[in-house]
Amino acid sequence: MRLEERLDLAALLERGAIEQLRVIYSPEGQTLDVRQPMTLGDEAFGSIRIGVSTLLMRQEVNAALRPALLTGAVALGVAVLVAALLAQLLLRPIHVIRSGLTRLGKGEFGVTLDLQGLAWEAQWDLGKGDPATAQDVFVMYWWPTYVTPYDFLFNMFHSEEQPLFNLGYYRSAAFDQTIDGANEVSGADKAAAEAMFRTAAKTLVDEAVALFFFDQDNIHVVRSDIQGYVDNPAYSHVVFIYQLSR
């Protein structure tokens, strides 16, 4: 007796996971064959065929996946909640600053402040233009490029004939000499260079050249079984994978 040809379960197992799921979750379901050849000596004379319904497979897969999906949903919810709390914590200083600027704009402190929302290119061009018409307050967030204080101190505060990043128009021969000297000896005498850089930084604070009011924290979530990870602020959000171990 010849039965209807159906997809062989062994053939399905050799296919990829996506194709297997497509067959198992086909809308109407289907019956797959499990075949066991029957032989007499070395000669095959028939086979035993057992039908396996994909509907039963679907039930088993759903039962196996349900706990994992529930765990994943709970983990996702916790992650979203933690991310929201961390975002509020990190953004709170910015909200405080914004609130203070808004009050300044209303003249509550005896100062009239004109707050203009400008695209970066527009405020950048305005700041590098005529000092007489440029904005009085320019907010700059510095991202580390070279692993040395000289990178930030030189670009932001070194004397310039034509301002590039030194939009406060700061000019001090003593300051220039200090950071230039620190840069020159940084390769041979790190301690001396660090002391000179600290002196230069203290000068900026004492002379109120700029207001350093915000320091952004890097927050990373690391599994407890991962060892060797160290956050390097000079390489923000960079993971040196060869230093990690389990």
Spell out the blueprint of helices and strands.
Layout: H1 9-13, H2 17-24, E1 31-40, E2 43-53, H3 54-105, H4 120-127, H5 149-157, H6 173-185, H7 190-206
Antiparallel strand pairs: 1-2
Helix pairs in contact: 5-6, 6-7
Question: Describe it for me?
Answer:
The chain has 246 residues and is mainly alpha-helical. It folds into two domains: 9-65, no CATH class; 116-246, no CATH class. Helix content is 46%, strand content 9%. It contains seven helices and two strands. It has helices spanning 9-13, 17-24, 54-105, 120-127, 149-157, 173-185, 190-206; strands spanning 31-40, 43-53. A two-stranded antiparallel ribbon has the order 1-2. Helix 5 packs antiparallel against helix 6 and helix 6 (173-185) runs antiparallel to helix 7. The longest helix has 52 residues, at 54-105. It is elongated. The mean pLDDT is 80.
